[in-house]
Design a protein that fits this description.
The complex is a heterodimer of chains A (120) and B (144).
Chain A: E1 3-7, H1 11-23, E2 27-31, H2 37-44, E3 48-52, E4 54-55, E5 58-59, H3 60-69, E6 77-82, H4 87-93, E7 97-100, H5 105-116
Parallel strand pairs in A: 1-2, 1-3, 3-6, 6-7
Antiparallel strand pairs in A: 4-5
Chain B: E1 6-9, H1 16-25, H2 38-47, E2 52-57, E3 60-69, E4 74-81, H3 90-104, E5 110-112, H4 122-127
Parallel strand pairs in B: 4-5
Antiparallel strand pairs in B: 1-2, 2-3, 3-4
The chains are: A alpha/beta (120), B alpha+beta (144).
């Protein structure tokens, strides 16, 4: 079962994603907006980190950059999301993929499944 | 392990009879009325087919939810799960799917109606982030 670490500042979205992803066969761990995301990646060892660009007072782009610089966690797959189309900047900063909000559930599953590769 | 049931969009008209059968078997909370005739469902499907979802298990329709979005507010109708398969997450999955689809359409706020004979489902919805609105009166009018 692929594990998805959710770093998202919208509690309603977190709740919906947890329900959806659980039913789709993923294990999910949700972080609060103040969480130390790189530390959580180290501890949880997720298959995918799904992270909002704006995470409370934190910048998802700074976080993904710091993840890529840490050899212990640098290889984790990171999918970033935002209501603004900042895909290019996210990819440049180190994200593997980007999903523009609002997204359809199938788009999310489609982007998570190939990399996670553990379903079915 | 993925859920044994599949969430998909309602197929018109081939899903109609089994869906109607499901609704008619729900003990309370789903009132089958004139908006549920084949012609009315066709009208609904023409408007937003991607918001009418069913749960399918072994080829049978065991759950439904109908979402609506008029460009300002969303509405949820006919969340129904067949009694023998309740408690395994079918309703939660249907609701998560339709709520995410409504968000994807730009819907900011959504309502659902709970009939007075089914008020015990309030806890179910409140656990999923829905708030009982004490500050409004709901009015209805038959236009046709």
């Amino acid at each position: 079962m692929a594990k998805i670490l959710l770093a998202e500042d919208d509690p309603t979205m977190i709740s919906l994603l947890q329900t959806l992803l659980k039913m789709e066969g993923f294990e999910t761990v949700a972080l609060d907006t103040e969480a130390d995301v790189p530390k959580a990646v180290l501890l949880e060892k997720p298959d995918v980190l799904f992270m909002d660009v704006h995470l409370g007072q934190q910048s998802g782009m700074d976080i993904v950059e710091s993840i890529r610089k840490d050899p212990q966690i640098a290889n984790v797959r990171v999918v970033m999301t935002s209501g603004l189309n900042v895909k290019e900047e996210c990819l440049q900063r180190g994200a593997d993929d980007f999903l523009l909000k609002p997204f359809m559930p199938a788009d999310l599953i489609g982007i998570l499944k190939p990399g996670a590769g553990l379903l079915g | 392990m993925t859920a044994p049931f599949k969430i998909r969009e309602f197929h018109f008209p081939e899903d109609y009879n089994s869906t109607l059968h499901l609704w008619q078997g729900i003990e309370k909370g789903v009132h089958v009325g004139r908006s549920d005739t084949l012609a009315e469902i066709e009208k609904k499907i023409a408007h937003d087919p991607d918001l009418f979802l069913v749960a399918e298990l072994d080829g049978d329709i065991v759950g439904t939810v109908i979402g609506g979005f008029d460009g300002r507010r969303g509405l949820i109708y006919h969340l129904a799960v067949a009694a023998p398969v309740r408690g395994v997450g079918i309703g939660s999955h249907l609701m998560a799917e339709v709520e995410l689809r409504l968000r994807a359409k730009g819907c900011l706020k959504c309502y659902l109606l709970v009939t007075l004979d089914n008020s015990e489902v309030g806890d179910y919805y409140q656990r999923r982030g829905w708030r009982h609105m004490h500050d409004i009166h709901l009015y209805g009018k038959e236009l046709q």
